[in-house]
Amino acid sequence: MRKQFVVIGLGRFGTSVAKTLTALGHEVLALDKNEHAVQLIMNDVTQAVQADAREEETLRTLGVRNLDVAIVAIGDDLEANILITLMLKEMGIPYVVAKAQSIQHGKVLEKIGADKIVYPEQDMGIRLANNLIRTNVMDF
Ligand code: ATP
């Protein structure tokens, strides 16, 4: 079933998530405060908007509250990451995924109601290690 997503923060991680979801046939609203990041993804998602996602009014105007899933992919700005995750949950978005920078950050995100917390570098490291073992790359 076609779902509606918003991806906030178009760094490497957010961009990759947004493009992949679109390629899989879903509707994706991509948001970043940086105009250049928005320009780069414009042709690969349903809608790309330049905006500061800390502004609740902006999120409301964009109809974010009616979407199925939100992905908060902001990295360095912990305050923005936490505040936006909290706002999205308060707006009633059923499933909010947030990217954490550390275990402590992840704990805060869990407390404020994030439904899934991801640690992209660590998660990728674990996946690669498991893949290497499963595919028996040592048997060459
Ligand atoms: P990656 O590792 O995925 O490349 P990162 O962890 O280094 O990214 P940042 O570059 O800090 O993360 O943030 C990702 C994006 O989030 C940036 O393009 C930045 O402009 C955007 N961003 C940061 N704060 C906001 C905000 N308040 N509203 C919208 N976008 C924001």
What can you see in these coordinates?
The chain is an alpha/beta fold. Helices cover 45% and strands 19% of the residues. The chain contains 6 helices and 6 strands. It has helices at residues 12-23, 35-41, 56-61, 78-91, 103-111, 120-134, and strands at residues 4-8, 27-32, 47-50, 69-72, 95-99, 116-118. Strands 3-2-1-4-5-6 form a 6-stranded parallel sheet, with helices on both faces. Helix 4 (78-91) links the parallel strand 4 and strand 5. The radius of gyration is 16 Å and the shape is globular. Adenosine-5'-triphosphate binds next to helix 1 and strand 2.
Give the secondary structure arrangement, pairings included.
Blueprint: E1 4-8, H1 12-23, E2 27-32, H2 35-41, E3 47-50, H3 56-61, E4 69-72, H4 78-91, E5 95-99, H5 103-111, E6 116-118, H6 120-134
The structure holds adenosine-5'-triphosphate.
Adenosine-5'-triphosphate is lined by residues 8-14, 31-34, 37, 52-54, 74-77, 80.
Domain RCK N-terminal: 2-118
Organism: Desulfosporosinus nitroreducens
Protein name: TrkA family potassium uptake protein
